[in-house]
Structures are given as structure tokens and as C-alpha cells.
Amino acid sequence: MTETRDQIAEQAGGGVHKKFMFVNRKAPYGTIYALEGLEVVLISAAFDQDVSLAFLDDGVYQLVKGQQTKALEVKNFSPTYRALEGYDVEKLYVERESLEARGIREDQLLVPVQVVGAEEMAQLMDQQDVIIGF
Amino acid sequence: MKFGLLINEGPYNHQAADTAYQFARAALARGHQIQRVFFYNDGVNNASKLTEPPQDDRHIVNRWSKLAQENGVDLVVCVAAGLRRGLVEDNLAPGFRISGLGQLVESGVEADRLVVFGD
Questions:
Q1: Fewer CB under 10 Å: which end of chain A, C or N?
Q2: What ipTM does this complex have?
């Protein structure tokens, strides 16, 4: 029942290329949205699609370095963001206003990103075929 | 138009599950197609046949089953999200099937619009 990446890539896609953007708006812990959202990103990387990620609101916390989850008794899944490059997912956009509102600097993030203003983020969203928000 | 639907919230807990259903009904009534409905996050609970709401309330799960039966709508529950929440083949309501996240991405590729119902 669980499909392998190769099987998925074979059965779907069918040569159609679309622009997929995954919009992350929620903190990494407290709810499951960030973790299960990331699982969709990893599967979508198996398809030959143009995948990008956007981080805004509390979603910017997902990328902050030095996450320690031991006391919460949940898995620290932040290293997975570093693995995205290996899946050819390299377009990570972070909204400047969301960083500033939370006092987070770009050098505190665990992967290279493009910091963009809200207006530019809106333009990027406008260019997408599929937007999935978690 | 061909619509794909993604439902990320549980029944009775969140409006998303109701709105998604009403959207599907309205779209079909206007002659559109529902390519697939994919259930993810707590949305997988929309597929539990163990659901028993009070008599005077709408039955969200049976509503989906009826929609599948009447219109042949493909209702797909994510296997990983389902396992995490105890939603497996044995307690699946009629009309639903369990499959992988690839089905969601495929929906994004094949549908003209993928509409997300979530928080």
C-alpha cells in the first residue's frame, strides 16, 4: 500500500509540469501541520514538478537553528529541511515581515533561503499552479 | 472545471469538513467534476465508519459515502496520516479507499484547481 518514490513517479505526473508551492504558516511544534506538511513536500519531490516552499507568520520558526525538542518528547524534524536540497527542492522563500515581527535574523536560519517582502511573496504565489497551505 | 479537494481537518471539530462537502455538492450541481477528494491530517477522521453523531445532527461520514455512491467521487485517505490516528482499512466507511500521498500530488497535477480546506 505504501508506494515507493519510483512507483509514484512512474504512475503520476505524466509529463505535466506544474508549479507547486507549499505555504507553511504554523510553528513547528504544538500542532502536527508542519511535520505532515513536510511529508507532502518530500513526496512531491518524487514527481517531476517545480516545487517551492514559502514560510510566513509563525511558519518562519520551522527554519530556526538549534531546535531542542527533548523536553517536549517529540522528534526534532528540523534536519529534514537540510535534506531538501538533495531532493532538488531549493526554492525556499521566507517573508521578511514575519521574520522582523519575531526578531529573527536570516543568519539564524538553518538553510539558505530567499528573504522576500510580502508584496513579492504575493507575486510568487500568483505565479503558481497549485498552492497547498499547512 | 475539474476540481481536486484536500481536507485537512476532522469532522465536527472544524468547519472545513462541512464546507468541503458543501463545495463538492455545489460544484457537481453546476456541472463541474470532482477529480478526487484527499483526506489528510485530522481530515482522515472523516472516513471512520465508527462515527455516530447524535440523531439530530448531520452525519458527516455517511454524507461523504453517499456522495461517492451517487457521483462516483474518488475519496482517498492518506495511509500514513490514517495509521497515525488509528484509521485503517477495517474501520473505513463505504466509498473511501486508503492510498499514499502520491495521490494528492497527482490531484494537483491532474485537476484544474486544487482547493484546500483547512485551518
A1: N
A2: 0.94
